[in-house]
Design goal:
heterodimer; A: 230 residues; mainly alpha; elongated; B: 214 residues; 75% helix
Chain lengths: 230, 214
């Protein structure tokens, strides 16, 4: 069983809108249903909406794996809607946690650090490198996720233990640590730059004590205000 | 550049945050580049975008948690800077633009919650009329666009009209860099430094200091 290019493109296109109607009670539900219907076909639209509506939330780039596997299940017609729903419940949590760790916590901040350092030193090369490298990984998961999900069916979850996730995360964690140190290259040899040490310590304490993000932003706001007034 | 056009551009870019694609175009370093290029000073746009990026490096949109809107803060900081610059000195513009941007980031987070509450109504409508799935779903694009416009337009109008007296506080590019590096270092150490990555941090730190000195 193979997924045609046309269906793959339809699923891919709809997956770009997965979070468009994100809301608190249903999260990505409408986005997921639209994506699933794009893959399965309008013929089963009513059945899918009736049986699969309800809360759905996963990492936006990882939804491709889940939709691919669900489309396969509908194509084969062997699994009941309840069985598909059970698979979705397990898969969305597993892929959400893997995607958050890989993209939000590792790959994106590491590449943004790289973009900042190169951007401040060399200009437009920094943002361009970020855009290209980030989207190679992003689009790889969006597109390959659909075909892997379709080919592996419900076994797609086992992909989370492969090098695609683990190795990339480890490499970018190491790269992120190197880049954190390289951030010091933005410092000028000037006595006033010694202020970085106490300020960084202050923000570090706020982060490790898990102060809310709003409070940290308010602190930066006040800092700019106080320095301006002084 | 026309304030309305800049607000429309900002509202379009902010769709990338979650409503469409999420390609990373809305990240502050990218918006700094785009808006800087439009105003004819890419390098300063990148610098401002980079500083805002460092502030919001750790803002992770996980689950139901909605942190302050770093993407909106980037657009507002860079857009406001160039609008302020037409009638104010460099120091005044550098002082006010980040303040507007940070305030905009916090307001943006609040507006995002409101937009998502509005999407709840779309979901309720879909539950009552299942045939309306696509209409209800794509209306979310309009919600996100209008949220962006409501956030950017007033702040950009304010920036375009604001002429501050000389007595108003100023800051320098160096001061902004110090604040950016401080919170950027704290964010990146918090995200990346573990026992197994200490060696890499050490190597990066040595290289960074060498680059800074020479």
């Amino acid at each position: 069983m193979r997924l045609s290019l046309g269906r793959l493109l339809k699923i891919f296109w709809q997956s770009l809108f997965i979070q468009t109607s994100w809301s608190f009670p249903s999260m990505q539900s409408m986005g997921f249903l639209s994506d699933l219907i794009a893959g399965v076909g309008e013929g089963k639209r009513e059945e899918i909406v009736r049986t699969q509506k309800g809360l759905f939330n996963t990492h936006p780039y990882m939804v491709s794996y889940i939709v691919g596997a669900a489309v396969r299940a509908y194509d084969e017609g062997r699994a009941s809607p309840q069985e598909i729903k059970k698979f979705l419940a397990v898969a969305q949590t597993s892929f959400a946690s893997a995607g958050d760790l890989l993209f939000w916590r590792t790959l994106r901040p590491a590449l943004l650090l790289l973009a900042v350092i190169i951007g401040v030193h060399y200009g437009i090369a920094g943002p361009l490198i970020f855009l290209i490298v980030y989207n190679i990984f992003h689009l790889f998961h969006r597109v390959k996720g659909i075909s892997d999900g379709y080919n592996l069916g419900w076994d797609v979850i086992y992909l989370l233990k492969t090098r695609r996730f683990k190795l990339v995360r480890e490499v970018f964690e190491a790269a992120g640590a190197v880049l954190s140190g390289l951030l010091l290259s933005l410092v000028a040899v000037n006595i006033q730059y010694l202020l970085v040490i106490p300020l960084m310590s202050l923000f570090m304490i706020m982060l490790t004590r898990r102060y809310s993000a709003v409070l940290i932003i308010i602190s930066v706001f006040l800092l700019v205000l106080i320095i301006g007034l002084v | 550049m026309n304030v309305i056009l800049l607000s429309l551009l900002g509202a379009l870019i902010i769709l990338d945050k979650y409503a469409l694609g999420e390609f990373g175009i809305s990240q502050p370093i990218m918006t700094g580049t785009i808006i800087g290029a439009i105003f004819g000073d890419v390098l300063f746009g990148i610098f401002l975008g980079a500083m805002v990026q460092l502030v919001f490096l750790g803002g992770l949109p996980i689950g139901r948690d909605i942190p302050p809107d770093g993407q909106a803060a980037g657009i507002i900081t860079v857009g406001s800077y160039f609008l302020l610059r037409s009638g104010n000195s460099l120091g005044h513009s550098l002082f006010l633009a980040p303040l507007l941007g940070l305030a905009g980031g916090i307001i943006g987070g609040v507006l995002e919650v409101s937009a998502r509450r509005f999407n709840e109504k779309l979901y309720v409508r879909f539950m009552d009329h299942e045939e309306c799935l696509y209409i209800c779903h794509t209306t979310g694009l309009a919600t996100a666009f209008i949220r962006g416009l409501c956030l950017f337009l007033p702040l950009f109008v304010l920036s375009a009209l604001l002429v501050v007296p000389d007595a108003c506080p100023q800051i320098t590019k160096d001061t902004l860099t110090i604040i950016g590096i401080s919170i950027g270092l704290a964010n990146s150490l918090y995200l990346f430094v573990k026992v197994k990555t200490m060696f890499y941090l050490f190597i990066g730190g040595i290289c960074g200091l060498v680059l800074a000195v020479f």
